[in-house]
Design a protein that fits this description.
This protein has 15 helices and eight strands. It is an alpha+beta fold and 301 residues long. The longest helix has 19 residues. The structure holds zinc ion.
Length: 301
């Protein structure tokens, strides 16, 4: 973290301070001071399954947190993304996207130029033929782009739609709802073991009319459809649709419940804070799986 904390820092002084820091020992990552970061950045290559990438991820994006050294690494990650071919740059894009997805306002403004370039590079990579037919790699690169574009919760948790479940709180009675997509049907339930199909109540989700989606929702749906992923586009209509809480029968917008739980810029609800301690390990697991997926996509397999 910055010395003295974030409060009261002006954007200009933040940018100036970081740009003049050549001594990484003045910056911090998850495990302490950041002298080891330049060497790790220098070791990076397009192969994502290396120790250097593992070490950088654990230091710069640790269980969903970023540090002063994380943001200071953005120029180097941008440079690598720029210099590497579109099919090879998912590594720097993905780490930079995770850091930026935290949405720390002063840092986002201090690194606006890098973030804009990273967005353009991600757009270019999304056109790569190697992504064709690889939904996991596509969705994670799209999520990365959304992080650069400051799309709130969708820059962090769009990939949960690949796991076909969002766990949210009913906005009326605050009961935990599982919003389930596709493999087991489209429904809301309170039943934690719904996948076993042994009797918990399941209420159908009501999808949005794709032709009626507007703004961000419409653009995202159209983009996914144009990229050749109609099944994922259909899931989005349920994300942008309505669910019914089995506990109190209240109808609520699914996307707003997702944002209420995970959009850090809106504050983290008390119940969600308790939950954050739980899924951290599985999130790390999914990140690794995603990186493996992207690596396989980049190698054309
Ligand atoms: Zn309810």
């Amino acid at each position: 973290m910055l010395p003295g904390g974030h409060d009261g820092w002006r954007i200009q002084s933040l940018a100036a301070w970081i740009s003049t820091v050549t001594d990484w020992s003045k910056l911090r990552h998850a495990y302490g001071t950041a002298e080891d970061i330049p060497d790790l950045l220098g070791q990076l290559g397009p192969d994502l399954l290396t120790q250097a990438w593992d070490d950088l991820w654990s230091r710069l994006y640790h269980q969903g947190a970023a540090y002063s050294a994380s943001y200071a690494a953005l120029p180097a990650l941008t440079q690598k993304a720029r210099e590497w071919p579109a099919c090879d740059r998912t590594g720097p894009l993905f780490l930079a996207g995770a850091i930026v997805s935290i949405g720390d306002r002063p840092y986002r403004q201090a690194y606006a130029a890098q973030i804009a370039e990273l967005a353009a590079l991600a757009e270019e990579s999304l056109l790569e033929p190697s992504l064709d037919g690889d939904l996991v790699a596509y969705v994670n690169l799209l999520q990365t782009l959304l992080a650069f574009e400051d799309a709130g919760v969708w820059g962090r948790h769009l990939d949960r739609l690949l796991a076909e479940e969002y766990e949210v709180w009913c906005p009326h009675c605050e009961t935990r709802n599982f919003i389930v997509f596709a493999r087991y049907g489209y429904f809301s339930t309170l039943d934690t073991m719904y996948m076993k199909g042994i009797g918990g109540e399941q209420l159908p989700l009501y999808p949005a009319d794709p032709d009626a989606l507007e703004g961000f929702q419409g653009r995202l749906h159209s983009r996914v459809l144009a990229a050749g992923h109609p099944d994922f586009a259909e899931k989005l209509t349920y994300v942008f649709g309505t669910a019914q809480c089995p506990a109190c029968a209240t109808l609520f917008p699914v996307d707003q419940a997702i944002s209420a739980r995970w959009d850090l810029s809106r504050g983290v609800p008390v119940k969600a804070r308790a939950l954050h301690r739980g899924p951290a390990r599985s999130r790390r697991g999914s990140r690794r799986a995603v990186r493996a997926g992207i690596a396989s996509a980049a190698s054309g397999s």
